[in-house]
Amino acid sequence: MFALPTLGALLRAHEVVAVVTQPDRPAHRGQHLTPSPVKVRAERAGLPVLQPLRLREPGWADRLRALGADVAVVIAFGQILPVDVLAAPARGSINVHASLLPRYRGAAPIAWAIMRGETTTGITTMQMDAGMDTGDMLLARATPIGSEETAGELSDRLAALGADVLIETLATLDTLAPTPQRHEEATLAPRLIKAHGALDWSQPATALANAIRGCNPWPGAHTATPRGMLTIWRARAVTARACAPDAPIAGTVASRDTLPSPATPAAPGTLVATGQAGGVPAIATGDGALLPLEVQAENRRAVSWEEYLRGARLAAGTRLGTS
Questions:
Q1: How far is the C-alpha of 257 from the C-alpha of 218, rounded, in Å?
Q2: pTM of the entire structure?
Q3: Which of 38, 225, 271, 300 keeps 20 to 30 A from 263, CA to CA?
Q4: How far apart are CA 106 and CA 109, in angstroms?
Q5: pLDDT band, very low/low/confident/very high, at 27 (cuts 50, 70, 90)
């Protein structure tokens, strides 16, 4: 969970008087009430844990003020907090946000940065105000996004980076000069929903590869096939140069990132053969082709694209996007 490295860093470097986290939620197959990882870590450290349903409810600002904290650290809490709650600690509330503000304000900055093809992101700490990620910035640190890095992998890296930047922010808080955001440069990163994972094969292959990375691990990029829904977890954009529509599916995934091109381009969503000895089909898109690497059929384990094609008996010429 994104907040855990920062909580661990705070426990090592500062006195933590309490932890506020979401209520226990039903989880797993039995839908048993399950505490958040933050709650588990806090209880292990012997800290009081508060779990308000909504911090806007009357009385919460007073309860938080009574804790006597100097500052509150807010990370991915999932609610827009009222001003009286933000002002409850003596020095207000600081947010650790997983983007270089003012870009990607909102609930899913990591996923949207990847899906929109960004090559750099980072962490920003800011003094919170009544808006959604609109407060004055304190510190920012950038990091490159790997060309095949998924949202889950990037989240792990940014969680560790966020802990470092937050500790540095607190250590220099007396001398930091808050910087107002340039609101005219803001972009939004709304909460992901399942529909964001639906693949539109008319889009360019590079955009689809980015969508697949951004939707891993949730909600998963998916498409209909003649054998049912398929989630694509990893894929690579390739350049189509000639395809034999009836080429066989045997062998291993080609190591080259180019494909031969047909005289008549295949319709987006069509499996197109690589034309290389032992190659497996890629998927035609609005521009170029997409070569899946790891996929998962409904109620099945994740497998390689080649293994899936063999089991599903799908050949070049098959159209995806239809059930």
A1: 27
A2: 0.91
A3: 225
A4: 6
A5: confident
